[in-house]
Design goal:
Length: 193
């Protein structure tokens, strides 16, 4: 059984909502177990990361970057970076903000850079935006058009706005794709060994 840590911070509950969909998608792949972990719960004990085979990072976009608690988690892994203990692990990121853009790309790039500095292998978001094939925009997979990682939009705090069904579908597909890549790599490594 391969384990994935879905590591997230959620200020208003939106990122947590999408983290559950990402984890559900990952858990739909045989031989994979995805576990939800709040980023702030890892800050005091980043060594806990060593038990996982892959990481799905989730954060709201705050002022063009990850949230403070998520950044604190990232910074807490400095010792692991110095010894490259996370090298070769799979990683990917998902981002939530109230606006369609909201500078989500810069947030994903900070996660990507973090993963690269640790020597991780980044898995992008491979889905073509479905609205190009006639699917209604709100229903479309990857409707926000991101290949670096998964992007989702949430209403402003307290607005009661529902999430776009396409974003929820994308979250599950994103988690499933990441888990499938991990499962395929595990089989390839076993065949070589």
């Amino acid at each position: 059984m391969k384990q994935i840590a879905v590591i997230f911070h959620s200020g208003q509950g939106n990122t947590a909502h999408f983290a559950r969909h990402v984890a559900d998608g990952a858990n739909s792949v045989a031989g994979i177990e995805a576990i939800l972990i709040r980023a702030e719960d890892l800050t005091a004990n980043p060594d806990r990361l060593l038990q996982f085979d892959g990481y799905l990072f989730g954060s709201p976009t705050y002022l063009g970057g990850v949230s403070g608690p998520f950044k604190s988690f990232m910074d807490a892994t400095g010792r692991l970076w110095r010894t490259q203990q996370l090298k070769g692990k799979l990683a990917a990121g998902f981002i939530v903000s109230a606006l369609p853009s909201g500078d989500k790309q810069t947030t994903l790039l900070s996660m990507f850079t973090y993963a690269m500095q640790h020597g991780m292998i980044w898995v992008g978001n491979p889905f073509l935006p479905e609205q190009q094939s006639g699917v209604p925009y709100e229903q479309a997979l990857n409707r926000l058009g991101s290949w670096t990682g998964m992007m989702a939009q949430a209403g402003h705090a307290g607005s009661g706005q529902a999430y776009a069904p396409g974003d929820l579908r994308t979250a599950a597909a994103f988690g499933r794709n990441f888990a499938s890549v991990l499962a395929r790599l595990a089989v390839a490594v076993e065949e070589v060994a």
